[in-house]
Write a structure and sequence with these properties.
Layout (H helix, E strand, L loop, with lengths): L1 E7 L2 E6 L3 E6 L6 E4 L5 E7 L2 E7 H4 L5 H32 L13 H8 L5 H8 L2 H19 L3 H13 L1 H17 L5 E6 L5 E6 L2 E6 L5 E2 L10 E10 L2 E8 L7
Parallel strand pairs: 2-12, 6-8
Antiparallel strand pairs: 1-2, 1-9, 3-7, 4-5, 5-6, 7-8, 10-11, 11-12
Length: 260
């Protein structure tokens, strides 16, 4: 029997190919939010002239979707970029008006530096991109001691010229890296909706973070022995499934239980 796989976190899931009617990117669909009888709301889409419920795998699991996590990271990168624009502006005010400069001089102590030092990812391209932040980030923070020292020696005009130059070069370099990182992070997931038909010919949409691959599974690989430990929308464990990234245990979803 053939299955279509998808993944959430480190766990693989699948539905029988025979139940799959249609697959499309989430952004190609027009969703309507409809109130339910219990006071909550659910997404609906028109499919073949019928209104169909669209459920999220992440919400079924009681977890955040990868898309939510991605948006949080994108928002964080926006905020940390703005921090350094504000940092340089504050340094300029200190040079011109002599006000105390209170922002972090140590690149390891600003909000971005603390996050950056702890950030890990299994995305090789993103990891390589993040390494490029180190030099311009450290150079910006080094400006505080350097330029404030020049001001104290009566070289304020020279210090301001250096600050303006770094706003034009080092800051722009850092901002370009922030932009590249946000774009790379945003493109790392491709939310997809699978239109699934149950045994009664009802259609329900299942929103997943990304589509995996099609695989075959023999009856001997289906484990129903722990059915009482599976979520209500699952049917069995599929054991020793060979996927592109290696062998995995896959949770088979039950199309008849997705619409509830």
């Amino acid at each position: 029997m053939e299955y279509l796989s998808f993944q959430h976190g480190q766990q693989h899931y699948a539905v029988p190919i025979a139940n799959v009617r249609f697959i499309t990117a989430e952004n190609t669909l027009q969703f309507t939010r409809v109130a339910t009888g219990d006071g909550s709301q659910q997404d609906m889409v028109d499919f073949e002239g019928k209104a169909c419920v669209v459920r999220s795998l992440a919400s079924l699991l009681g977890q955040d979707s990868a898309q939510c996590e991605i948006q949080e990271l994108v928002d964080l990168l926006h905020a940390r970029e703005q921090d350094h624009v504000n940092w340089l502006d504050a340094l300029g005010q200190s040079l011109i008006h002599g006000v105390e400069f209170t922002k972090a001089r140590d690149p390891n102590q600003c909000a971005f530096g603390r996050w950056y030092n702890d950030f890990v990812t299994d995305n090789l391209m993103l990891s390589q991109l993040m390494e490029k932040f180190d030099a311009p980030h450290r150079r910006i923070h080094a400006l505080a001691d350097e330029l404030l020292g020049m001001r104290d020696l009566g070289q304020t005009d020279e210090a301001m010229k250096i600050l303006v130059e770094h706003k034009r070069t080092t800051l722009i370099r850092l901002q370009n890296l922030f932009t590249d990182a946000r774009q790379m992070v945003s493109s790392s997931v491709r939310p997809t909706v699978i239109m699934i038909q149950d045994d009664d010919d009802h259609i329900v949409g299942l929103k997943v973070d990304d589509i995996g691959e099609v695989f075959s599974c023999d009856i001997e690989q289906q484990d129903h022995s722990t059915g009482d430990l599976l979520p209500e929308f699952a049917q069995a464990w599929l054991k020793d499934i060979k996927l592109a990234e290696g062998t995995a245990t896959v949770m088979q979803l039950n199309p008849n239980r997705l619409k509830h």
